[in-house]
Amino acid sequence: MQDAALRLKGLMEQLLGAPVPVRIRAWDGSEAGPPGGPVLVVRNRRALRRLLWKPGELGMARAWVSGDLTVDGDLYAVLDAVAEMVWERGEDARTLGEALRDPDVRAAVRGLVRMAGSLLPPAPPREEVRRRPHLHTKHSDRRAISHHYDVGNDFYEIVLGPSMVYSCAYWESPDDTLEDAQRDKLGLIARKLDLKPGMRLLDVGCGWGSMAIHAAREHGVSVVGVTLSQEQAAYARKRVAEEGLTDRVEIRVQDYRDVIDGPYDAISSIGMAEHVGSERYLEYARDLYALLKPGGRLLNHQIGRRPWRDESAYEIDEFIDAYVFPDGELAPIGDTVGHLESAGFEVRDVESIREHYALTLRRWVANLEADWPRAVRLTSPGRARVWRLYMAASALAFERNRIGVNQVLAVRTPGGGASGMPLRARTWR
C-alpha cells in the first residue's frame, strides 16, 4: 500500500504541532497535503535519517544537497512555506532538548525512526566543509575563500552573467537588465568615493576585477585590487589586459592585512567584510583607516543581519557555514558603524539597499536554472544544488527583512575637521 506520504505528513504535523504547509510526495509515489501547489519530494528513506541525525537546518540542507530531498514546482514557494519551520526560527525557537520533553514530539520521532528503516547515519555530502572554530587567521581565511570562490570561473559566468559582479546590484526598476544594474552599482560607489583622475584606489576583495576596471576606465584612477582567490585573480588580470588597463590596474593575491603601500585616496570594500568575523572587525577597520590618506574615503558595502535581543545567543547559520561561506559572519549595521567609528572614521552616510539584493539574487537563480545542465557539469550536482538553495533562500530573507545590505561611507577626517564632503552629500544619485 502506497501511504508513506500520508504517514509522513501525520508524523510531521505531530512533531511541529501545526499543519504541514506544502504537499509531500514520498519515495513510494504517494502524495499528501494541500493540493495544487509545489511539492516537497522525499525521494528516499535516507532523507529521514539525515533529518533524524541532524534535526533542523543542517539535516534539511544535507538532504537537499545529496538529492534525497527536492522540489517539484516553485522553489521559492516551498522555501517561503517552510521558512518558519526551519530557516527562520530565530532566538525564540525551542531547543531540541526542550522539544523532546513534549510527549507528542517524542512519539513523532519514534514514528519517523520506524519509517527511516535504519539508524545508521548517512555520510554528509562531499560538498560539506568540516566546521572549525572561526579563528580568521590568514591561513583559515584563505582556505575559506578558496572553498567559495575557486569553484571555476565558468560556473560564476553562468550565475553572475557578463558583469561578473558578485554583490548586490543597484536597480532603477525591476525591469532593468542585471548588467545595467551592476554597472549602476559600480557607478554609485565611484560617485560616493568621488573618484577623480590620478587618484589611487584600493579595492579590498576585488573579485573578478569589475570595480577596478570600472574605476580605471571611467574615472582615470590607478587601482590595486586584492583577493585571496587564485582563480579570481587570474580572471581579473585577463580582463584588465583585454581592456588595455595594465598600466593603471594591479591585481594581487594578497590578504588586506598585508597591504603596506598606502596611503590611498579611497578604498572600496564590496561584499568582502562578511568574511572578516566579529572578533577581527575592529582590526579590519583600523587597517583600512591606516591605509587611507587624511580626507580619504571608505565605501564599505556589506550584508547585515537583524540584531538579537540577546546577542550572546546568536549562532552562525549552519547551512551557510558548512556549504557556502565557511567562517562567514553577519553583524548588525549598528555594530559595523560602531567599529568604524572606533577605528577613527567619521561615518557620513549609511544607505540600505536591501530590496536591491533580493532582485539581484532572483536574477542569479534564474541564470543558474536556465543553464542548469552545464552548471552541473562544471561543478557537481551537489554544488549546483547548494547554490540554488542558498541564493533562493537568501532572496526570501532579504525580502522578509531577515537580513539587509548597507553601503557605509566613512571618511578619515583630519584633525581640523575638514571632511571634504559637500554640504548636500547625496548628489551621487
In short:
This protein has 17 helices and 11 strands.
Descriptive keywords:
11 strands, alpha/beta, 429 residues, 17 helices, single chain, four-stranded mixed sheet
Task: Explain the layout of strands and helices.
Blueprint: H1 4-16, E1 23-25, E2 31-32, E3 39-42, H2 46-53, H3 57-66, E4 69-72, H4 75-82, H5 96-100, H6 103-116, H7 138-149, H8 153-160, H9 178-193, E5 200-204, H10 210-219, E6 222-227, H11 230-242, E7 249-253, E8 264-270, H12 281-291, E9 292-305, H13 318-324, H14 333-342, E10 346-352, H15 354-370, H16 372-378, H17 381-399, E11 403-411
Parallel strand pairs: 1-3, 5-6, 5-8, 6-7, 8-9
Antiparallel strand pairs: 1-2, 3-4, 9-11, 10-11
Helix pairs in contact: 1-6, 2-3, 2-6, 3-17, 4-17, 9-10, 12-14, 13-17, 15-17, 16-17
